[in-house]
Specification:
By secondary structure, the protein is mainly α. Helix content is 69%, strand content 0%. It has helices at residues 4-15, 28-32, 35-47, 51-59, 66-79, 87-99, 103-115, 122-134, 138-147, 154-163, 167-177, 185-201, 209-222, 225-237, 245-257, 261-264. The N and C termini lie close together (7 Å).
């Protein structure tokens, strides 16, 4: 496994590249960048709602970045961002991502087979969630446990509502879980993180990086490693937070130390 200081060096390299414009062909700068750095370029464009540019970038990422690029292309088609909403295309990309080793792709396949009417299959859902869980995805493990139990926790219920595109109900449930009187910091942190993704991706709401940044910051403060990763990317790309390499690298390091897999991949 690579050392944390290599992760920091990588982030510094990333921050030295300029962000692509919202239209036009890919620059030589992008083409020369390492595959995992290209993911940051595309993510920055996605954050600015430059979906066509983000799509073009993700379509041109090979090597170790390809699984996550396919996963993100699936997100575009599932949400209809810059493309027509096309669940079949989304599932195709998620499957390809999962088959190439993306635990995010495997998790999303599990959700699709759990909630999407055209694809509902408990057997397939368990299979894909199992693949994600084996790769260390705790959310997938929690869903697997919930599927074998008569009682589903409130956070899992909110995730299922998001997968069913019942976003208003999901947001309401998540906001209740962020209430400090509940007393479970882990659940509170994860609820803040889910709200961050909802507002960053524009799931049932207008994309709002300020709100996403607020929710990720709250979750990171509580100790959620996924939020730490999201916050690190915001600082490193300057999208959602004022660009700050030092803070970005620090949050990436903290996320990696807590075992968040995408942060570990940046070591």
């Amino acid at each position: 496994m690579r050392l944390i200081n290599k992760c920091i060096a990588l982030m510094i390299i990333c921050s030295g590249f300029s962000v692509e414009a919202s239209s036009g062909s890919l620059s030589d700068e992008f083409k020369r960048a390492p595959d995992n750095i290209k993911l940051y370029f595309a993510y920055a464009e996605f954050k600015m709602a430059h979906y066509t540019k983000a799509k073009l970038m993700w379509e041109n990422i090979e090597g170790e970045g390809k699984p996550e690029a396919y996963f993100n292309l699936g997100i575009l088609y599932e949400l209809g961002k810059g493309v027509d909403n096309d669940l079949a295309m989304a599932v195709s990309y998620y499957r390809q991502a999962a088959e190439l080793g993306s635990f995010s792709g495997a998790y999303q396949m599990g959700l699709m087979h759990m909630t999407a009417r055209e694809y509902v299959s408990k057997e397939e859902s368990i299979q894909w969630l199992g693949v994600a869980a084996e790769q260390g995805d705790n959310d997938a493990l929690e869903l697997l446990i919930a599927m074998s139990s008569d009682e589903i926790g409130p956070l899992t219920k909110a995730r299922i509502l998001i997968a069913k595109e019942e976003y208003s109900r999901a947001i309401s449930s998540l906001l209740q879980l962020t209430n400090t009187s509940i007393g479970d910091n882990k659940i509170q942190g994860k609820a803040f993180t889910q709200l961050g993704w909802i507002y960053e991706m524009g799931k049932g709401v207008e994309p709002d990086l300020n709100k996403a940044s607020f929710y990720f910051s709250e979750a990171a403060r509580i100790g959620d490693p996924e939020a730490m990763y999201a916050l690190a990317v915001m600082y490193l790309t300057g999208k959602g937070k004022e660009q700050n390499k030092e803070l970005g690298n620090e949050w990436m390091r903290k996320s990696a130390e807590l075992g968040f897999k995408k942060a570990l991949g940046k070591r």
